[in-house]
Amino acid sequence: MKFIANIGFAIRSYLADLGQATRLFVRLLSLLGDNLRRFGLVRDQIHFLGNYSLAIIAVSGLFVGFVLSLQGYYTLQRYGSSEALGLLVALSLVRELGPVVSALLFVGRAGTSLTAEIGLMKAGEQLSAMDLMAVDPVRRILAPRFWGGVITMPLLAAVFSAVGVLGGWMVGVLMIGVDAGSFWSQMQGGVDVWKDVGNGVVKSFVFGVTVTFVALQQGYQAQPTPEGVSRATTRTVVVASLAVLALDFVLTAMMFSI
User: Fold this and answer.
1) Is the separation of the CB atoms in 119 and 215 below 8 Å?
2) Residue 1: pLDDT band by 50, 70, 90 thresholds?
3) I want to staple 69 with a disulfide (CB 3.0 to 4.6 A). Which of 137, 145, 172, 175 is the partner?
4) Measured in whole angstroms, how far is the alpha carbon of residue 27 from the centre of its chain?
5) What gap in Å lies between CA 232 and CA 223, rounded to an integer?
6) Is 107 helix (H, G, I), strand (E, B) or coil?
7) Looking at 12-21, 66-75, 99-108, 213-222, which range is the least confident one?
8) Nearest Cα to 110, choosing from 158, 44, 49, 41?
9) What is the C-alpha separation between 142 and 18, in angstroms, rounded?
């Protein structure tokens, strides 16, 4: 009986956490209009989350483009299709690697920062003090960070893909010697703006919503102790990374099977 009781308690706790997370998510979505009217708060979060993540996104995109071009050239050369290197690099970046890798980097850089910040505010009783002063912490603290992350993620993914294409051009054209005209013309002719680039933008938007919400929810529900904040930060990386990879599979299956 004790074993069954423990299972029931675990299920009830999980459902309670899921319900709280759903209520928080709906509340954040409902505050979109309020944050548009007070866009200065969102702008500050875009600067904090996006500008400080730009360096790691750009450098990572450059080296991913290097590797894609190098590996892709030796693969395409076997079939006499080395002129399609630009198309291979562009499609790989805008469809998959741009949104996914930038989202994983965003988790490590910005997601952990959001969780630690909210968790420390809770541990320092700053959120409770705001409640006592009749200031809604969800409206004033969480919502601007949520929408700042949602706006920032597609922009970072676009930077990652653009820098990656530039890195692929540097390796393919300048180092290996692929014809520059073939590199760009194959890319322009094979990449569809709506089907390829548009799907990548949708993916990055969904990833931005997921990663930012997981980070804020873990920080908001963290135990107000140093150990609780550290566990919440670790959970953010694990849960958000797995969610990004799972959603990437689901979105890819939906987008390219229709």
Assistant:
1) no
2) low
3) 172
4) 21
5) 8
6) helix
7) 12-21
8) 49
9) 18
Give residue 233's Cα distance to chain centre. Answer: 16
> Are the CB atoms for 137 and 221 separated by under 8 Å?
no
How would you write 203-232 as a 3-class SS string?
Answer: HHHHHHHHHHHHHHHHHHCCCCCHHHHHHH
Sign of CA dihedral 51, 43, 108, 168: negative
Q: Helical H runs in the chain?
A: 2-30, 32-37, 39-50, 54-77, 85-91, 98-106, 112-123, 126-132, 137, 143-169, 180-190, 199-220, 226-255
Burial class (CB in 10 A: 0-12, 13-18, 19+), 155: middle
d(CA 221, CA 98): 31
Joined together, the tokens standing for residue 130 give 């705001």
User: Is 110 in contact with 49 (CB distance < 8 Å)?
Assistant: yes
pLDDT 10s digits, 104-148: 999 998 999 999 999 988 888 888 888 888 888 888 889 999 999
Report the amino acid identity of residue 12. Answer: R
